[in-house]
Request: fold
Amino acid sequence: MEIRNLGVLGCGLMGTGIVQVFAQAGYEVVVVGTAPERAQKSVAEIEKRLMGRVDKGKLAAEEKDAIMGRIRIGAGLEDLADCDLVEESIPEDLELKKRLFSELDRICKPETIFASNTSGLSVTEMAAATGRGERVMGMHFHNPAPVMRLLELVKTVMTSTETIEAVKAWGVALGKTVVVAPDVGGFIVTRLFTPFLLGAVRMLEAGIATKEEIDISMKMALNHPMGPLEVLDFIGLDTELSIAESLYEETKEAKYAPPLLLRKMVTAGWLGKKSGKGFYDYKTK
Ligand SMILES: NC(=O)c1ccc[n+]([C@@H]2O[C@H](COP(=O)([O-])OP(=O)(O)OC[C@H]3O[C@@H](n4cnc5c(N)ncnc54)[C@H](O)[C@@H]3O)[C@@H](O)[C@H]2O)c1
Reply:
């Protein structure tokens, strides 16, 4: 099972980082967004990041050009037809992911592996929406994808051992530390981390501490690089709300129930860093 030509569907926060990881590792990658202009913006962002490293003397200009040369913008799903592996990183919406995988199933060659960057939705349901369940799996990168070393793979009851083993070996070659989780809501990382993040929102909501007190306490006490409310702004509050909703629906455990404040902020359009406002204000920074 050779994994050489890669496709990335969705080029927001995570998709952009994933394209960068793939191209930096020497792979040809086709990126498809909602429109070529959206993908163009994502590619420009990667170039800006790499230019920063060139300016600091951490990357040769020729190497930057070589990385950028491996990224191609696709006009639509048809451009992913010949990929060996397609990673989707579209919004955390199960119906949307199922629909896109079902469309890709008709377009891509039979050998193409479909991987989802979902933070915790059912990969089995995505697999069942295709006719190639043995080649569908979760491939959960962490934010920011080029920096975070963990790659969490998700094996459903349908995923073949051959697929998992091939992607596992490939992930290690990508420079990541790979773990394989079963298809339970939130897998390993999101399942453990979500109650902590939601707890910080509840603490703020209850007036127990200010956002600054919560964040500084966790940073200083636990040596975390970011406080939980800063992390939520970084993840995207809309994404976090979808994660909490799906985990709560699956487990019915109160620790996953989305706090009202989180819902209200999403309704207000305060999505965190990507919208310029979340728990903190980013427009002035
Ligand atoms: N934000 C995080 O910290 C984080 C971390 C790990 C995993 N994830 C997961 O990664 C996925 C993407 O999250 P994100 O934070 O990058 O979200 P995002 O909103 O930043 O990006 C999603 C992108 O998908 C695009 N899109 C929507 N419909 C599309 C379609 N039909 N075809 C092509 N592109 C389409 C949107 O235009 C947007 O650019 C989600 O499943 C999320 O749970 C997020």
Summary: The longest strand covers residues 136-141. The mean pLDDT is 97. The two ends are 47 Å apart (CA to CA). The longest helix spans residues 36-55.
